[in-house]
Amino acid sequence: FNDIEYHQSVPAKYRHTLLKKYSNHAFSIKYFMNRGLEKVCYPAATSRRVHRPRLAFFALSGLLFFFVFQRAIVSGNEAAAFSTVRSSKSSAPFSLFATLTFTDIQYKEQFLRDIAPLADYIRHHEPDTISYNVLLSDQDPLKVLIMERYKDKDNAFLNVHRGSAPFQEFRPRLKAMQDAGRVEVDGSSYLDSTVGFSDRSAVEG
Q: Out of 89, 98, 133, 148, which residue is the most buried by the measure of CB atoms under 10 Å away?
């Protein structure tokens, strides 16, 4: 093993390890020379175990990137779909039904006087309000039903109707009657299902 010990390509710090590891090897020194002393003496440069953590790291990084990218695409599609559904719902005709139950007939009559100017204003100044009806119950003289129908909820109802001056003047009067316990208001809102009709003249036209 003298040839190995004094081989120029083997640093001194590796010679002892090499001699100790292969001193009883049955093959000749030429075997190690042919296989490459560098591969024997520098395991850190050729060992697959050293590179396995790197490979695992790159593999996990690739999988993580793929997962994040895939999730971003799915989230984008879901957001687009939700936005489309929300937009279609907000642009559908919007209806509001409010039932008012008064404690005395005089309060019902006062309410009818208060709401009349508002209904007249809506008729002439809110073209996107499809209908606005105040109905009297034929079974209970203290009940009134208001049926409101708008072209859409966001603009025609929330912006134009509720933002008008006549509505801003009428609403506090009704609120005062509620606070005084003279009327109970129960309401529900709906969006069109496109089944049926509400205006026969529009259907016939």
A: 148
